[in-house]
Write a structure and sequence with these properties.
The structure holds two protein chains of two kinds. By secondary structure, chain A is of the alpha/beta class. Chain A contains nine helices and ten strands. Chain A has one domain: Rossmann fold (3-Layer(aba) Sandwich). In chain A, the strands form two sheets. In chain A, strands 6-7-8-3-9-10 form a six-stranded mixed beta sheet, sandwiched between helices. Chain A has a four-stranded antiparallel beta sheet with strand order 2-1-4-5. Chain A is globular. Chain B is of the alpha/beta class. The two termini of chain B are about 30 Å apart. The complex binds adenosine-5'-diphosphate and magnesium ion (MG). Magnesium ion (MG) binds next to helix 1 of chain A.
Chain lengths: ~250, ~450
C-alpha cells in the first residue's frame, strides 16, 4: 500500500452549509504534504472531517486511511490508528493536569493497539526525554491542559503531544500561526523528528516560512472547497509572492 | 410494630414522641423536657414540610411519607472493624462511631491532647454532665426563619437521643482530624433516628471534624440529624462531611453555625448517597471579622434528589463568606440549590460570594437553583451566580481526538469539574479519599467493601 491517505471527491457540510465540494487528495506513505489557502477556504474543516468531529457532515465521497474506510471510525479509534491533529485552537481543560492528560491519551492509544500501558515511571522518563528534545519547559507539563497558556505555549503543547504520541499521520492546522522564529523551529523539529518511511504529515499553513524548515514533498492550494492546484515546494514560494488573489472566493 | 404498615405523617411522629417522652435521655431534666415539648409542639403545628413552605418549595418528602418508619431501637449488629475509613489508617486519630444515631464506639486517642478536649456522645453527656448543654441545645431553631422553615429540626429537638458532643477548650488545637462515622443499619423495618451533634470551640481553639455518613444494605431508613456549632473568638473549625448513605435512605441534616469575632468556619459537603437528601446550613457571622467557607459537591443519578439549602447572615462588620457548590446530575435525578446571603445593616465592609454550578448529564436531569442576595449595608462586596451546563463539547472532542474513549473522556471532565471544590480541603489525607469516592461514583459503584 503506497498511499497512507486517499481522499476522493469529498463533500462536507457544516451547519448545513457546503464547505468541501469535491476534494481529492492523496498522501503517499512517508511523504509530507502542505495545504495552503485563503482564510475560510475549508482547511480546518478538512482537518475536522479527518478526525471525526461532530457537526462536520460528509455528504459525498470517501476517505481511505491505510486502505480502509476512515469515516466510520470514532475520533478515538482514528487516534488509535495513528491519526493526530494539532489543533488550530487548542482547547483549555480546567482541572486536568497536562501530564495526566498525556498519560491517559498515550495509554489509551497503547491499549487500542494491544500494547501494555506505560507505568508512572516509564511515562515520566518519556516525558522528560521529549520535553528536553523539544526544549519545552517542565512547567508547561505540570499545568492544567492549556489553561492560561499563551498562544505560543498552546502550540508548543500540541507539538509535545505529537512527539509523545508519535502519530502515523500528523495533521497540523496552522500550528505556525502567531509563532516567533524560535517556536517555529520547535514545531519544525517536532515534525522532522517524526519523518520516517512509514509516517506522513499534512501541514496546513498560511505562510511559506514554516516550509523552509519542514520541506514538503508536495504543496496543495485549497480554494472553493477543492484542491485548486498542486505542485512541488516551489509552489509555496510562488504563493508567498503572488498571494491567493488568483484563488479568490469570487466564484463562490 | 403496627405503625410500619401505615405511611408516615406528622401525627405518627407525634405519637412516637408521646410513647417515648419519659424514656428519652435526660427525661428528668426540666429544661430539656421543656425544650423537647416546645420542639414537638412546633413540629405538630408546622407538620411535615410541604409545598407551602418557601424553604421547601422544591423538595417533597414523598419517599418519607410513603413508608412507615419506627424509632430505631438498640443498635443493629455491625462489625465496627469492617467500616470503611476515609482517613489513612495510621493507628492514631480520633474515631467516633454512631449506629442508627447511637454512640457505639469512641476511640479518642487524644494522647497528644490529654487536657482540653471533650469528645463523646450526647446521651452520656446528658447523664453525667448535663448543665453545660442547656445553653447550647436551646440556642438554635428559635429564630423566625427557623421557626417557620425547620419543622424537622424541631422534630430532632424533641426526639434527639444521642449524637456527637465535642468541646475544645480555650487555645487548644486538636492536631489530628476527628473522624465521625454515622452508620445507617436498616433492619426488617424502616427505622428513623434523630442524632443531635454539638460542637463548641472556645476562643482560639482549632479542630477538624470529618463526618462520614454511610448505609449498610439497601433498606430504607430516615436519618434526621441536627447540629449546633459555636465557634468562639479566633477559633477555627474545619468541618468536612461525606454523605454516602444507602440507596433508599432519607438523609436530612440541619446545621446551625454561629461565629464570634475573627472565628473561621470552613465547611465542605460531598453528597452522593441517599434517595432523598437535604443539607440545610445556617451560618451566623455574628462577630466582627468572622469568616465562613461553605463549599460542596454532589453527584446524583437514578431518581436521587439532593437539596442544598444554605443561609449566611452577615451580622457584623468585616465579615466574609465564600460559597461554591458544584454538582453533576445524571438520569432523572434532581438537585436543588437554595443559597441566601444576607448582609445586615451593621455588616459594613463585608464580602459575600456565592456560586452554584451544575452539569446536567442527561435530558431528564434537573436542577432548581435559587441564589439570593439581600444587602442592607452600603459598603460591601458581594456576588452570586448560578450556571447550568452540559459537558464542554470542545473539550470532549479534544480528549477523544487524542485517543481517549468517549466514556473515559466524560469521566475525566466530570472529575475535573468536581475536583476544583475538593482541592481546597485542608485535612491531610482526605483529598485522595474524596477523589477516589468520585472515581467510584463515576465507575457506577459505591466503592465500599460490604461488611
Ligand atoms: N462550526 C462552524 N459553524 C458554521 N460555520 C463554520 C464552522 N466552522 C467553519 N465554518 C465556516 O466554514 C468555512 C470554512 O471554515 P474553515 O474550515 O475554518 O476555514 P479555514 O480553516 O480554511 O480558514 C468558513 O466559511 C467558516 O465560516
Ligand atoms: Mg482554519
Amino acid at each position: 500500500m503506497d498511499s497512507l491517505l486517499e481522499i476522493k471527491n469529498l463533500h462536507a457540510r457544516v451547519d448545513g452549509k457546503p464547505i468541501l465540494k469535491g476534494l481529492d487528495l492523496v498522501i503517499p506513505t512517508g511523504e509530507v504534504h502542505a495545504i495552503m489557502g485563503p482564510n475560510g477556504s475549508g482547511k480546518s474543516t478538512l482537518a475536522y472531517v479527518l478526525t471525526g468531529r461532530d457537526g462536520y457532515e460528509v455528504t459525498e465521497g470517501e476517505v481511505l486511511y491505510k486502505g480502509r474506510d476512515l469515516l466510520t471510525l470514532t475520533p478515538e479509534q482514528r487516534a488509535g490508528e495513528g491519526m493526530f491533529l494539532a489543533f488550530q485552537y487548542p482547547v483549555e481543560i480546567p482541572g486536568v493536569p497536562n501530564t495526566t492528560f498525556l498519560k491517559e491519551a498515550l495509554n489509551a492509544q497503547r491499549k487500542y493497539r494491544g500494547e501494555d500501558p506505560l507505568d508512572a515511571m516509564e511515562f515520566v522518563k518519556l516525558m522528560r526525554r521529549k520535553t528536553k528534545e523539544l526544549g519545552i519547559s517542565d512547567d508547561l507539563i505540570k499545568r492544567q491542559v492549556n489553561v492560561g497558556f499563551s498562544g505560543g505555549e498552546k502550540k508548543r503543547n500540541e507539538v509535545l503531544q505529537m512527539a509523545i504520541l508519535e502519530p502515523t499521520l500528523a495533521v497540523l492546522d496552522e500550528t505556525d500561526s502567531g509563532l516567533d522564529i524560535d517556536a517555529l523551529k520547535i514545531v519544525a523539529e517536532g515534525v522532522n523528528a517524526l519523518r520516517a518511511p512509514d509516517r506522513s504529515a499534512l501541514i496546513i499553513t498560511h505562510y511559506q516560512r514554516l516550509l523552509e524548515y519542514i520541506v514538503p514533498d508536495r504543496v496543495h492550494v485549497l480554494a472553493h472547497g477543492r484542491i485548486a492546484r498542486s505542485g512541488g515546494k516551489e509552489l509555496a514560494i510562488e504563493l508567498e509572492r503572488t498571494g491567493y488573489a488568483a484563488f479568490a472566493e469570487a466564484a463562490a | 410494630m403496627p405503625e410500619s404498615a401505615s405511611p408516615t405523617t406528622a401525627q405518627s411522629f407525634v405519637a412516637q414522641f408521646g410513647a417515648l417522652r419519659d424514656t428519652l435521655p435526660g427525661a428528668g431534666l426540666p429544661w430539656l423536657r421543656e425544650l423537647r415539648e416546645d420542639g414537638i409542639a412546633r413540629f405538630a403545628k408546622l407538620g411535615l414540610p410541604g409545598p407551602k413552605v418557601e424553604a421547601w418549595k422544591y423538595t417533597r418528602l414523598r419517599p418519607l411519607e410513603r413508608i412507615g418508619f419506627v424509632p430505631a431501637g438498640a443498635a443493629a449488629q455491625v462489625d465496627l472493624d469492617k467500616l470503611p475509613a476515609l482517613l489513612p489508617h495510621t493507628g492514631v486519630g480520633h474515631r467516633v462511631v454512631f449506629v442508627n444515631g447511637r454512640l457505639r464506639q469512641c476511640l479518642a486517642l487524644l494522647a497528644d491532647q490529654p487536657e482540653g478536649v471533650e469528645l463523646g456522645g450526647l446521651a452520656d453527656a446528658l447523664r453525667h454532665d448535663p448543665d453545660p448543654l442547656a445553653a447550647e441545645l436551646g440556642r438554635n431553631g428559635n429564630g423566625a426563619r427557623a421557626r417557620d422553615g425547620q419543622p424537622l429540626f424541631a422534630l430532632n429537638t424533641a426526639m434527639m437521643q444521642d449524637g456527637l458532643v465535642l468541646r475544645v477548650r480555650r487555645g487548644i488545637s486538636v492536631a489530628l482530624p476527628i473522624e465521625v462515622i454515622y452508620v445507617g443499619a436498616p433492619g426488617p423495618e424502616p427505622v428513623a433516628f434523630h442524632p443531635r451533634n454539638l460542637i463548641v470551640l472556645e476562643p482560639g481553639a482549632r479542630a477538624t471534624v470529618v463526618e462520614h455518613h454511610i448505609g449498610l444494605g439497601a433498606g430504607a431508613y430516615f436519618a434526621n440529624g441536627g447540629t449546633d456549632i459555636r465557634i468562639e473568638e479566633g477559633a477555627q473549625l474545619h468541618h468536612y462531611k461525606i454523605q454516602d448513605e444507602g440507596p433508599e435512605a432519607i438523609h436530612i441534616a440541619t446545621t446551625h453555625v454561629e461565629l464570634a469575632r475573627d472565628a473561621l468556619y470552613d465547611g465542605f459537603i460531598l453528597s452522593k448517597g441517599a434517595r432523598l437528601s437535604r443539607q440545610e446550613v445556617a451560618v451566623q457571622l455574628a462577630g466582627e471579622g468572622s469568616e465562613c467557607h461553605l463549599n460542596g459537591a454532589y453527584m446524583l443519578r437514578g431518581e436521587q434528589h439532593c437539596d442544598i439549602t444554605t443561609t449566611i447572615d452577615h451580622l457584623a462588620p468585616r465579615t466574609s463568606s465564600r460559597e461554591v457548590f458544584k454538582g453533576v446530575i445524571d438520569d432523572q435525578a434532581r438537585a436543588v440549590f437554595q443559597g441566601r446571603i444576607t448582609v445586615h445593616r451593621d455588616a459594613q465592609q463585608s464580602n459575600g460570594h456565592q456560586l452554584s454550578k451544575a452539569l446536567l448529564l442527561s435530558d431528564r436531569a434537573e436542577i432548581d437553583a435559587k441564589p439570593e442576595l439581600e444587602i442592607f449595608a452600603d459598603d460591601v462586596k458581594c456576588s452570586h451566580g448560578a450556571t447550568v451546563g452540559d459537558l464542554d463539547r470542545d473539550a470532549l472532542f479534544y480528549l477523544r481526538a487524542r485517543g481517549i474513549p468517549e466514556a473515559a473522556a466524560r469521566d475525566i471532565l466530570i472529575e475535573a469539574f468536581l475536583a476544583e471544590t475538593i482541592n481546597n480541603i485542608a485535612a491531610e489525607g482526605l483529598c485522595p479519599a474524596l477523589m477516589s469516592s468520585i472515581g467510584h461514583w463515576l465507575g457506577g459503584t459505591t466503592g465500599r467493601t460490604e461488611p
